[in-house]
Amino acid sequence: MTAHDGMYIDGAWRPAAGGGTIEVRNPADEQVIATVPAGTAEDIDAAVRAARAALPAWRATAPAERAARLTALRDRLAERADEIAATITAELGSTLAFSTRVQAAVPVAVTGIYAELAASYAFEEKLGNSTVLHEPVGVVGAITPWNYPLHQITNKVAPALAAGCTVVLKPAEDTPLTAQLFAECVDAAGIPAGVFNLVTGLGTVAGQALAEHEGVDLVSFTGSTAVGRKIGAIAGGAVKRVALELGGKSANVILPGADLAKAVHTNVGDVIRNSGQSCNALTRMLVHADQYDEAVALTAEAVAQCVPGDPTAEGSRLGPLVNARQRDRVRGFIAQGVKEGARLVTGGEEAPDGLATGYYVRPTVFADVTPDMTIAQEEIFGPVISILRYEDEEEAVRIANGTVYGLAGAVWAADEETAVAFARRLDTGQVDINGGRFNLLAPFGGYKQSGVGRELGPHGLTEYLQTKSLQF
Length: 472
What we know:
It is built from 16 helices and 20 strands. The model has no long low-confidence stretch (mean pLDDT about 95). The protein has helices at about 40-60, 65-80, 80-90, 95-105, 105-120, 150-165, 175-190, 205-210, 225-240, 260-270, 290-305, 325-340, 375, 395-400, 415-425, 455-460, and strands at about 5-10, 10-15, 20-25, 30-35, 125, 130-135, 140-145, 165-170, 195-200, 220, 240-245, 250-255, 285-290, 345, 365-370, 385-390, 410, 430-435, 450, 465-470. The chain is globular. Helix 3 runs antiparallel to helix 7 (about 175-190) and helix 10 (about 260-270) packs across helix 11. By secondary structure, it is of the alpha/beta class.
């Protein structure tokens, strides 16, 4: 695949400061498909300087004009959706159907939403004898993950630009080609030079340099809780703002009287999606003791239909994980689950049949999981479901809330009122009620160690604004 050999800084592709490169591998066959520059602190500095220079003019640009540029960006992303989907499948391993339907399509919708918000948001309001101004926070350092490479970019860049901020993006090193396509779309949309800048590189080098740079006013990071803690510490030392969307260990609570078959099949589809590489995946299924055995059987039956294979093949539902490190990590969790006494219902740590090459993992179901087990406490980030038994609602609440995470969850009940009452007791940022659909306007983010701040919709826009009051 084609790739740029430079960085997108100040409206142009320019050579990287160092000579290092990063190999991009196709996780389905482990072959190198491209190389991109390994950015250094010098590249980050150039990008931040460009962003700072562009900030005064962009923040002074009328919201309607910012909206027009975002609308143009949305249109460019839509025009290249097929190319974007194929690129994401090639560098991440998402099935082509999922890359087309979600990975490439959702960012188009998100960008369109922020184009509308840029035009309609009340950047000024009257409060008593004051006028309150909602102004851009400044230069944003955006550090994005590999699991939703374009979605996480637009979740940060689109609201930042709508707010009047300028941006330096450091994408995940596993999926830099998608970020390069995004930069091409930014350029084609006529967004002024320096307003958006792209530096590819390693998190430990370019990512750290971006988080530490004194010219960055806000760091927006999505990734692991461990790295989020480090970024939070860096930002705290400099008294700069952060927005952190981190790990999850979401519980799917199936209450007595719920549609068990629908709840189980929805849960399996949620975890299989993107090969389990979703921070909000419902990886813990909580079932009442009276329905436990039936739920285990239904889960095993549903998972048996999800056979790993070529992500480009028609009808494929489960592709590889992103890299060898992630594959080995997930297999290690599966082995740990067996070691700690969970019952392996289906799957396991061995390579799937006929797939010795590629970063594949068997979809795995554990039963007889207790809340203290590693697989019930730590984020696995793979196609692994742990099924836990509870005796009453009080125990279900304790189990659901009994991790350091609080990103998402789901509740199924015989009626909406019962489900909502239970959901109000969950310490988590988002809860699906009886299969409620994901809403791109609703705030997304976590409680506890799942993060700080919110993305999506108007709440996502406010992350990139600061307030000033004028008294009369």
